[in-house]
Amino acid sequence: MCGICGEFTFAGAAQPPRYETLERMCRTIIHRGPDSQGIKIVDGRAGLGMRRLAIIDLSTGDQPMTNEDGTLWIIFNGEIYNYRGLRQEMLRAGHVFRTQSDTEVMLHMYEEYGETFIERCNGMFALCIYDSARQRLYLARDRMGKKPLFYHHAADRFIFGSEIKALLAHGTIPRRVNRDGLADFLTFGFVANPATAFEGIHQLEPAHYLVVESDGRTRKREYWSLEGKRVIRRSLRDAQSEYIELLSASVQDRLISDVPVGLLLSGGIDSGSILAMMSRDNAAVPTFTIRFGDPEKDEGPVARAMANHAGSRHEELFVNTDEAWRILPLLTWHYEQPFGDSSAIPSYYVAQMARKHVTVVLAGDGGDELFGGYYYNLLNVWLRRSRFIPAFLWRLGSKLGEYATQITGRQGPREWLKRMQTASLNAGEFDSAISWLSYTHQQTSRLRNKKNNEGNYDPLAAPRSYWETGNGMSYLNRVLYSCYLRFKLVDDFLVKIDRAMMSNSLEGRSPFLDYRLVEFAASLPDHWKVRGLQTKWFAKKAMTKYLPSEVLRKRKSGFGVPRRKWMAGEFGPRAWEVLLSERALARGYFQPDALLRVRDGSMGSGDNFSLVYHLVMLELWHRLFIDDFSEINLSLEKDRWCDIRVG
């Protein structure tokens, strides 16, 4: 596991790559690879840099790495889980190895099969190969988008890296806000690939490779997709057996390591299923759980019961409001773009705790997206069936929602019924499905200064294109693919887990995101995923004999934070001090009067934590990356990041 960066200068470029520049870029991603650094300039035009977190082949796996005759050079971030089998294949083909690393396997695979070699690799990765003979750069990203890869294509050079900070440290890229990326954030709470929040900086999409020629021409190809995946008829028993076999194999693949491996354990079925597979052959698995002093969001008791059931070595950590607020500048630095998912806070702290004991952790990311775990999906299925409900019944429901709001003093019932009505009466199935993910737009649109936010960009265009690509899938599988697997999972949940883990020099692995398991889940019928009022019916049914009954019966709560409690504590006043500061208001994004109405409780619902969190993270991003980056960037002092005044 590493962080990579570099540049490739085109024919006629005035300035070739410089060692000092590559070293500066590497310093910004030292947290991704604290064990060693490697920098190489090849042919006077390809500058390759890496920081290494040693996981496999601790003694001989350093990078950049070359082939036998020095015509190929590779820098590689990630893990290839089937590398041992591929290594044997390359040995039989006559290739000579100098290390035991998966990195060298990738190099010889490129020699043997060319650009399409990546289709044979099962893993999580972002890589760059410089082909000296062809004067060509080759970059690739894994199928599910676990590992990030950013780039800037200038007139005379191509600059890339595992993080945006590395690109900015190059010193030639202007720091300007990309209004399209900002529109994404204000709609969904994250920036969708291939865009970023920075003008001129892009992401390589998951399951794509990109070739950059010496004259600056590029070509990009998607090498894997779920497009056209159909439901396969099979018995439930056969499907369950196949699922257990695939999950077990995926977990075992992700236990390959020369350093200690643990598990991030929540109280849910996904991490519990992984623990069950890990515990079959491994006693006393190290497990880690984050806790809050709020019963509504505290999964600690169920996680502990699961850990006791499996006999794991269990660790817990409580997070309070002060710790949550203090960490925001540091999170802003590591996430690099406006990021509105507040579960980044507990994700960071649980990674910090785990890193004291292990170097690799498994996590349950992807289980909900594969098997229909969100209540939104339950609502999608039922609302699709409810399109025949007359409008007057929805009006009656709205009145009941108003009454419930008056009785409880909470806006939630009214707003949820309003959203359900909108989704149900909407003519398009896609618009109904995506409405649950674009709730941030409904929150921020009432605050935005329209004169400062004009434009024709459509944030729904990307998920809509995935919806069209998924034509031919069953309804729920199409929703899961277009709105979750290809969209929210990639740009929200996987970004969250990657930055939380790597900011603590901890590698995170996700067994549910093995592409074979993803393809299997896409072949299951809708009614096995959502049945009646139950989500993830199939996954629970398959794990009946492996998990305690309280886990299987547990109501899904999500990996969230105690929003109302935090907002009522110190978080609220501190946040409003930032948002109503002269510096924040001068940006002109939001109407001051509307912000005051939200603060005073006359606009919106209850605590408004989600909305306020989004706005605070946008403002902190502006301060760290647009206003003050050059000063903060090169200090590389974590304590200083935490001490930045956010008031």
Key phrases:
6-stranded antiparallel sheet; 29 helices; single chain; 647 residues; Glutamine Phosphoribosylpyrophosphate, subunit 1, domain 1; alpha+beta; Rossmann fold
Brief overview:
With 647 residues, the protein is α+β, with helices and mostly antiparallel strands.
Q: What's the helical proportion of residues?
A: 40-55%
Total number of helices: 29
Percentage beta strand: 5-15%
What is the CATH C-level name of the largest domain?
Alpha Beta
Cα shape? globular
Arithmetic mean pLDDT: 87
Q: Low-confidence parts, pLDDT < 50 over ≥5 residues?
A: 631-647
- The CATH homology group name of the largest domain: Aminohydrolase, N-terminal nucleophile (Ntn) domain
Radius of gyration over C-alpha positions, nearest whole angstrom: 24 Å
According to CATH, the fold-level topology of the largest domain is Glutamine Phosphoribosylpyrophosphate, subunit 1, domain 1
Strand count, sense and barrel status of the largest sheet are:
6 strands, antiparallel
Distance between the termini: 37 Å
Tell me the number of structural domains.
Answer: 4
